[in-house]
Fold this sequence. Notes:
The protein is mainly beta. The chain has helices spanning 13-16, 99-104, 171-177, 288-291, 336-341, and strands at 2-5, 17-25, 28-35, 48-51, 63-71, 83-90, 115-118, 122-126, 130-135, 140-146, 149-150, 157-159, 183-194, 198-209, 216-225, 230-238, 247-255, 260-267, 280-287, 304-314, 317-332, 353-362, 384-395. It is built from 5 helices and 23 strands.
Amino acid sequence: MLTLHNYMDFVDLTEYAALTYQVSCDGEVIDNGFIPYPDGFTLPPHSENALPLAVHIPDKGKCFLKIFYHCKKDLPLRSEDHLLGFDEILLENEDSRNQKTLAMWSDAPSNSTITVQETDRHLTLRGKNFTYNFNKLTGLFAAMQYEDAVLLDKEMEFNIWRAPTDNDRKLKLDWLAARYDHCMTNAYRTEYQVTDSGVTLRAKVGIAPISLQKFLDLDVCWTISNSGAVTLALHAERNTVFPELPRFGLRLFLPKEMARVSYFGMGPMESYCDKHHAASHDYFSSTIWQQHEDYIRPQENGSHYDCDYVQLDGAGIKLTAVGAKPFCFNASHYTQEELTEKAHNYELHPCDSTVLCLDYAQNGIGSASCGPRLAEQYRLDDASFDFSIRLIPEKA
């Protein structure tokens, strides 16, 4: 049964809206149709009533029911069948995990092995199809090459900063005082172990602003499989004397030719932890340029919330990032430094890379430009947290 509540003040819903439904599983539509009103069914203003709706729910997969409300007749400002809105409901089943995501965490059997060459500063890992260079001083990969394709234009970064939004106009003063926009990453100890299935790299990492004490301690573990997949698992401890973080995650500079993005998460418009009611869960695909929200005053934009995976491709190579838990991402041809520095959108200059940010979380957007401080549940102020994500390169 589907229980409906009519929030309108004067109109019976049955006279105003026609209903359709859609059931999806892991981003694929498996059922859809029209929802008729039974004979005698009414839904007066501010009342509730139940409609019969039987849908098939698979035993496995992340399944959603979407109810769409369409204008029932031509009105002065809306035509018949105009979409008035929708509701999205997560359906319960035996295993609600995205099965495509689970498959991405499995390694195909491989007879190849990885060799490791060590210097004072770097570890060079060579497998059958790849060569990765790991910086022992940062705990991050400095270069990655897969099947003769260069994956990184520059070294990976642990990412803290975001271009302040209009609503960050007060909070950004605290962020700038903490120098979150000028942070350094240092690995104090790095070690590795070669196994039958690949290589494990472990590092103790600290993140600190220039000239201030560190505010993050990270226990970092990278696992590189013989196939070339790279998995990050880290535990973070935050110095709570510092203000809440703008964001935390990884930033990758990919070749600009990797200009298409596909993902399962909340879209198609930008979405954040406290700003996503217009979005819904689905599989989406677009160009990197289409991801950009062109605010007159440049600022953080284009993120997608509650994502299971994202894939970028172009120039014969593709890179998939899949989370152990839902994560946020944005992909852009503008760096956060460019968006921070420029005062008007016409001043922006794209960089020579595709910038991919894979975030454990971002601070919420909130309303502090003209309203109260961001609500506690949307602040990125955890004293500790865990983040795990897997990078899978493939030939396109």
